[in-house]
Structure to design on (733 residues):
């Protein structure tokens, strides 16, 4: 055996020699060894570390393999579907009968095709929302698809979607709401934890690979509600055991909620945060001490790090719905997010170092609505066409060692060395671009703290963009600029900056229709969702074309008139729809003469303010008498009037909208003439602006609008705007 011992000794000596050599080399070239050393997932600061040193160490924390894979997905989707789809609610209370669930035409293949068209890479399904209704045949409760008429109680939405994802090569994740308003054991902590673990086990064992588990932090129990202590540690252990490749999000330890459901992340977004991940009590204690939560404005600046004892790789996910609600509601179809809005969200999520989780809720048929399908396709086309042609690829890069920045390949990267540092891209011919893409090689950490972009035109350098963090991906949108040289200045970073990409793109233009507004004083303004739009307009009733007046600043239209407007693309080769607004006399001198008591937030003046976004709402406090409810307006001028208009509130909630009405007029405010009485057509199904004509012309200074019945029979009234139709043509201005 002696010879074996000698072999061991030899091996040990050899290892020692290697270590000593590395240490010696490191001493010779200290900085390069230091910069390359990274810490996966987290780093604990020494107690006496200086603020500067802490920042440097934070720059060496890197994602683990799961987090890196997830970050590269960029675009992911949420599917909110369940009993709420059938009740019209956003939060069910758990008493809903499973019999309501019957998506007769459910086709997960159709969902997946629509999502793929948008460039989505992973789909997360609400397997159970707060109402407790399970979309798979769980053994834990009868409150599931098994108790529903859908597929005769034999269906399984989780299975159908997972199968469709596999067929289409999409990844799959599950949302299992911890808060459960149906479970009788919710609030009995050990019993509910057992049930929840069983539900998780079913989902993580029976459907193949799961890539993301989404733990919602929402709980609306209130101070007197049920108190459930979730056993987060047990949930996490289970996931790691059954699905080691899945990231655990929100109340999980891998992926952080960005802190809003608006679709807009932070301009400074650190993936390395002092915010401690997950729900374990010790992590919660860290956050409490630091006074941090997901919604805090700053999670990773030097100031925050100075107070922290540890830092974590905890990247942000931006969740937002394509519609106002998370679940499908038919009346929200007209309010689906526009393409310019989705593009803006893309820049503010994916373009701000986050992953976008876009919710698309299927409807009661079990299909993604045609409107959403079309919007997803438009969005997917816009992303792919905008980022197809990377102009950087044509550049010569100085210093020449930094060519990897402009090769369109994230996997190749170069250290820019100590900051400040720069890279200059020179083009043989001028290029025109409106987006700058920057990517750090996050496998070496997120380090950049400040950067600017300059362009050279006719020999002169001008700064066109700048920012703080870059991280996995940063997109900066600017007005289109022509340049022969572009310089990327990394001004400050936490150690050497490793830049993987510096791309330049000219995005596909989105022509969005103009919105025309006239205020109470008669000033007309126009806007649309395209930055720096080209809008032309007419006031003589003709259709605007590229030669018509271009809208630049508000103008006065004090009388009755017609405004027509149309938006064009940059080179005026394409245009959008013609938008027409007709206006009557302007309401400058109008005032409210009499009105029912109003809700303090929604005064009666709002019905004559020419703002379709504001409303009048009567009081909701005390005893609410049944209608009639009325408002009297003094126009301060006597006019020949032929009719009136009523516009319902515009905030997506139609409560208080008038169904039956009465309209009376007066010249002195004392003697009244009833003009019309009736019911607005189709107001319940399609609440929109109504125009009602009188039988004969009336001389009017005062008018009184009365609601006799609301669309839901309510004891209050709401209205966005009231107007009159003065007699005579809308003459050209
Ligand atoms: C929230 C929930 O309460 C909403 O219903 C939705 O599921 C959203 C994604 O998370 O916290």
């Amino acid at each position: 055996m002696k010879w074996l011992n000698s072999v061991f000794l030899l091996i040990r000596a050899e290892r020692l020699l290697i270590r000593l050599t590395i240490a010696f080399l490191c001493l010779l070239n200290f900085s390069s060894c230091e910069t390359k050393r990274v810490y996966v997932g987290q780093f604990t600061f020494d107690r006496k570390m200086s603020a500067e040193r802490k920042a440097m160490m934070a720059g060496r924390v890197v994602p683990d393999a799961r987090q890196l894979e997830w970050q590269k997905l960029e675009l992911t989707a949420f599917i909110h579907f369940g009993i709420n789809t059938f009740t019209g609610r956003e939060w069910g209370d758990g008493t809903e009968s499973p019999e309501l669930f019957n998506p007769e035409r459910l086709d997960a293949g159709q969902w997946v095709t629509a999502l793929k068209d948008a460039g989505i890479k992973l789909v997360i399904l609400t397997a159970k929302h707060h109402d407790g209704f399970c979309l798979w045949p769980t053994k834990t409760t009868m409150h599931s698809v098994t108790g529903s008429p859908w597929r005769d109680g034999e269906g399984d939405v989780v299975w159908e979607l997972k199968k469709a994802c596999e067929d289409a090569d999409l990844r799959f994740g599950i949302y299992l709401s911890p808060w459960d308003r149906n479970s009788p054991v919710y609030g009995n902590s050990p019993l509910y934890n057992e049930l929840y673990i069983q539900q998780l086990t079913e989902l993580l064992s029976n459907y193949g690979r799961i890539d993301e588990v989404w733990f919602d932090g929402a709980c609306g129990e209130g101070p007197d509600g049920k108190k459930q202590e979730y056993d987060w540690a047990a949930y996490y252990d289970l996931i790691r055991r059954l699905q080691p490749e899945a990231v655990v999000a929100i109340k999980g330890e891998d992926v952080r909620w960005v802190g809003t459901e608006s679709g807009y992340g932070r301009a400074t977004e650190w993936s390395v945060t002092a915010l401690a991940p997950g729900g374990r009590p010790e992590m919660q204690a860290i956050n409490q001490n630091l006074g941090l939560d997901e919604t805090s404005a700053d999670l990773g600046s030097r100031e925050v790090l100075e107070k922290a004892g540890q830092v974590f790789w905890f990247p942000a996910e931006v969740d937002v719905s394509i519609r106002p609600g998370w679940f499908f509601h038919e009346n929200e179809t007209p309010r689906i997010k526009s393409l310019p809005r989705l593009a803006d969200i893309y820049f503010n999520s994916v373009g701000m170092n986050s992953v976008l989780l876009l919710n698309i809720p299927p409807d009661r048929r079990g299909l993604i609505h045609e409107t959403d399908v079309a919007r997803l396709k438009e969005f997917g086309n816009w992303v792919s066409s905008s980022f197809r042609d990377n102009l950087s690829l044509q550049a010569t890069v100085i210093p020449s060692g930094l060519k990897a920045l402009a090769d369109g390949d994230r996997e190749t990267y170069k250290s820019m060395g100590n900051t400040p540092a720069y890279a200059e891209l020179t083009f043989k011919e001028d290029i025109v671009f409106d987006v700058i893409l920057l990517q750090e090689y996050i496998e070496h950490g997120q380090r950049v703290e400040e950067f600017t972009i300059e362009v050279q035109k006719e020999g002169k350098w001008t700064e066109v963009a700048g920012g703080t963090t870059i991280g996995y991906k940063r997109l900066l949108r600017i007005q289109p600029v022509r340049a022969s040289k572009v310089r990327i200045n990394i001004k400050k970073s936490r150690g050497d900056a490793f830049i993987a990409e510096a791309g330049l793109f000219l995005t596909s233009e989105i022509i969005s229709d103009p919105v025309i507004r006239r205020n109470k004083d008669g000033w007309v303004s126009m806007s649309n969702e395209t930055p720096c739009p080209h809008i032309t307009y007419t006031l003589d009733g003709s259709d605007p074309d590229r030669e018509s007046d271009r809208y630049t600043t508000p103008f006065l239209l004090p009388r009755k008139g017609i405004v027509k407007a149309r938006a064009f693309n940059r080179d005026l080769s394409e245009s959008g729809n013609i938008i027409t607004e007709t206006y009557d006399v302007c309401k400058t001198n109008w005032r409210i003469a009499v009105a029912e008591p109003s809700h303090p937030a929604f005064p009666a003046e709002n019905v004559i303010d020419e703002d379709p976004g504001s409303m009048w709402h009567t009081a909701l406090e005390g005893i609410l008498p049944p209608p009639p409810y009325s408002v009297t307006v003094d126009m301060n001028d006597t006019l020949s009037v032929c009719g009136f208009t009523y516009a319902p509130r515009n905030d997506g909630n139609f409560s208080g909208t008038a169904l039956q009405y009465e309209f009376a007029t007066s010249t002195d405010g004392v003697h009244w003439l009833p003009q019309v009485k009736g019911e607005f057509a189709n107001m319940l199904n399609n609440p929109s602006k109504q125009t009602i004509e009188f039988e004969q012309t009336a001389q009017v200074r005062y008018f009184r609008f009365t609601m006799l019945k609301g669309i839901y029979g309510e004891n209050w009234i709401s209205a966005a705007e009231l107007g009159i139709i003065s007699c005579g043509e809308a003459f050209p201005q």
Observations:
- The radius of gyration is 31 Å.
